[in-house]
Records
---
Amino acid sequence: MKPANTLLSQTGTTIFTIMSALAVRHGAINLGQGFPDTEGPADIVHQAADALLDHRNQYPPLTGLPELREAVAAANKRFYGLDIDATSGVVVTSGATEAITACLMALINPGDEVVLIEPLYDTYLPVVKLLGGVARLVRLEPPAWELPREALAAAFGPKTKLLLLNSPMNPTGKVFTPEELGFIAGLLLKHDAYAVCDEVYEHLVFSGAKHIPLMTLPGMAERSLRIGSAGKTFSLTGWKVGYVSGPAALMGLVAKAHQNLTFTTAPNLQRAVAYGLAKPDEYFATLADELQLRRDLLDTGLKRLGFITLPAQGSYFITADFSALGFTGDDMEFCRMLPEQAGVAAIPVSAFYVETPPRHYVRFAFCKQPAVLEAALERLARWTAAKALTVSA
Ligand code: PMP
Ligand code: GLN
């Protein structure tokens, strides 16, 4: 038989699925894959349930239901002062995952160069490659996750088509600063390149950090595509409703890509998300405040156990250095051992790098009920005590 698609046959199962399966097998508390362990707001779920029963279950319009497109445009205005046209400037997708692929399809011709920042989310690179794009990787390194400006500038050239930017960033929890965004914007203008902005964690920002869409910077509105996810904003990750906002000239192409990927997204979920996006500011502030408390709970507990945690200003995740625990294997070994031995699952940070990754950092998700986080910390404490690992202060 002829070989099937080589790129996909070389792509492994996602690390999130691997670690969730290990968590299930060992009855571990899953602080690996990033999903909340409680339902999203009951009123939004009721909206979706009611919407199933009022005879609007056939194909919604290709670019999304008007009420959701209008809600996305209104949210762009309310939170960031952005003027997005609800008709020509928004496309609703089946999750941010589809949105990322649709945006990359809209922009990349084979041979185009795409600047990606490591550690990077697992779908970016395979999709860039499938489209014939050539990845130019720039690395952020723990513990500071500082933007290496020289390396970033060097990654741009005449063939650069776009930069894919994830802020707030998974797995680092980094929220890009206005200065960093300004530097990036300068490079995009200099090289006449586009930005695909994965902003799924836009409302999950803590400790006074502020999420600024790159699109709000001068000259960026006409060259940026901004991606949001109802899964993250409403703690309903299984719904897979995403949305792209951008200039009409590009959004027509995003719509064509979406037409060829899924064409449309479940209408009842779209209607419920439209309702959710219109919630008062207080909803969005409380979402972040509650998550911040959970971040602090996990962070303090991990530090007490001897992990060195890195500051997380946004997202669902804390990165923790386990080298002071006395475990001598790498992060993959650590994460394969942890569910069975400690009853807790995490994600190895090396999975977010292509080559020569850092090897002693793991990612813990804190989007869990406080009692669950406490239980996970207790299990980790029992495990470290039983192993008599050396814990440095
Ligand atoms: N981008 C990033 C950075 C993510 O962490 C995730 C994971 N949830 C996604 C995109 C995918 O979002 P969705 O579930 O809406 O497809
Ligand atoms: N975004 C989630 C995470 O980083 C995982 C989503 C998935 O499993 N594909 O944990």
---
Amino acid sequence: MSSIFQDNLSRLKKAQEVMGFSDSELDYLSKPAQIKTATLNVSGKEYPAWRIIFNRDLGPGKGGIRFHPEVSEDEVSSLAFWMSIKNSLADIPYGGAKGGVKVDPKQLSEAEKEELSRQYIVNFYKYLGQDKDIPAPDVYTNSQIMAWMLDEFEKQTEKHEPGMITGKPLELGGIELRQDATARGAYIVAKEAIRDMEGENEKPVFAIQGFGNAGSYLAKMLNSDGYKVVAVSDSQGAIYNEAGLDIDKLLELKANKGSVIDYKEADKISNQELLNLSVDFLALAALENQITESNALQVKAKYILELANGPVSNEGDKILADKNIVVIPDILANAGGVVVSYFEWAQNRTGNILDPEYLVKLLEKKMKLGWAKVYKESQDRKITLREAAYVIAIDRILKAARFRGKV
Ligand code: GLU
């Protein structure tokens, strides 16, 4: 078993120490409920694919599908585990799941991406559905991919079922709010954290690792509210200007050239240098395992805001906690994406179209409530925010599992 999943076990064990559940319950919480695998075939090449439901005591499986060259069963399992924790913490009626295809989508044509997306569904449609397991976008997947997947699902099952997938285009039952929901949720949580831990009038300085969907929208929101973003990065490199970056220009550059590194009014720095900057907030919006025991000591930010899933390893966490660096954990900070997926799903199932303004308020309310309960639990028990989030989430899952007679 590789380190990502080992990390989850360590975090579960820590929760057990704090909460005192039994070893058989720990064992139950440590194992995925269902693992399905397939090999997809596009243009003569084979791509391994997974769909894993980690836990379904609170409801159907829910979580994205990623296309990435590093995808593995261990990673998909860990991501499915995190979805279980995240959905439980957000108080939405879902278990946790994740899917992945080991592929570099940048090497595929549009037609090949469509073929890959359709094949994914041909292989897994029997295990998906609005009451079984509901995918969504994740790293390198988007609303077009969700559209192909929905279309293939409906072809296979010969009926309309838009609630089988979220993050769809508006015309297929998607929801406007979904596009920037992860960033919006993280921004709400960050502002709550600033108010509670720093004071109402503080305007901290940010650096953002990752300028994809979550990172770029966060940068835009921060910028338009007058917060300074001094550094951003993407897979090609990082840029830094102490005086702040013009995010609108960067967005234009990213859209036209595919990267932020050609931005003129900043110094080019390495990804590692970005992680080491003396900023107030370091937002991690790239991939997992970015801060580990090998580099956590060099981190100088006061706060880490996790928009990616699993960007700080368990050992990294311990070092950061020793340095009094506050980590606002992924399962709280990036839950906006799946909360809005839940709105989309609920709308699809009832046929009731909800007012977008009402949904924005509902998202805000949920994120604020999430922050308040995690912050309180961490203060009451004198544990980190991540540990507190795990305690709250596991408590809900375990109660449901006990009611079901599973443990
Ligand atoms: N991929 C996103 C996440 O990791 C969203 C999942 C969803 O909406 O189901 O939270």
